[in-house]
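Entry for the shared binder. Reason: the reviewer on the internal report wants the predicted structure included alongside the sequence.
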Amino acid sequence: MNDELTHRYDEAVTALAEADLTSSTAAVTSLTRARDAVQTALDEAMAQAVTREGASLRQVAALAGIAPNSVSPRLARSAALSAYSRDGRVDAQGIALARADHQEGAPMRFVRRNSKGNHRD
C-alpha cells in the first residue's frame, strides 16, 4: 500500500470508530461520513490495482462487486488517477499513461531482438 491509500484507510477506520450511535439520526449522519470515507479508500485501492498491479477495469469491478461501467468515474475521483481523467472518467489511454508513469522509476530491461535476414558475420 502507498501513503495515499493508507491515509484513506485510516480516515475510514477513524470515521467508523467515531460513529455516534446514541440515536438513530446521529447514527445516520456519522455512518454516512464513514461510508464516504470507505468509498474514497475503495476508489484509491481500485486505482492502484489498475495502475500498479495491472488489473483490468472488469477485474476491479468484479472484486468490488460493482458494475464495470461505474469503475471509470470512480477512478477519476482517486488521487492516483485524477490527473489522467477526461470528462469525469478515466479511459484506456489514461490508464496506459498512468501505468507508464508508474513504471518510469523502474530500471530499464534489455530485451534481445532477433533480426530476420540481417545477419553479419
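Summary line for the report: The chain has five helices and no strands.
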